[in-house]
Amino acid sequence: MWPSSVESGLRVADLMRPVLGSPVVVLLGEKAAIGALRAAVPAVAEVCGQQWTMPGYSDEELAEVAVRYLVRRGYEVPEDVRDAIAGLTVTLPARTVRAAHQLSGAITRTAVSRTLTVAELGGIAGPAATTGGLAAVG
Prior knowledge:
Layout (H helix, E strand, L loop, with lengths): L4 H12 L10 E4 H10 L1 H6 L3 E4 L4 H14 L6 H11 L7 H14 L23 E4 L1
Antiparallel strand pairs: 1-3, 2-3
């Protein structure tokens, strides 16, 4: 039987209790998920002395993530296509790497060749909405 998320959270919190020479532990996740964990398992908040909230990525950063994803998969991404992808990132419902990867995946599904063209981006819509930003505690 799998332990509940609260039981798992308590186990994680126990493992994170400071011990001389212990490593630094950082929990990283979507802001809502980290908030829910901290609310469900107060011990996590006790052992994590600080919390940071990182803003979502900028349109330029998301475009770069999307282009790198495409290049790693063997696509040629000319400058005009890079500019068009930057324009598409404005439509993303979330400012996350996952959203940029989903956008890239949509582009690869419509690509006719390994050299992308602006015309191929015409029918691309952003991925479904997900939550954005990350929270870290440690």
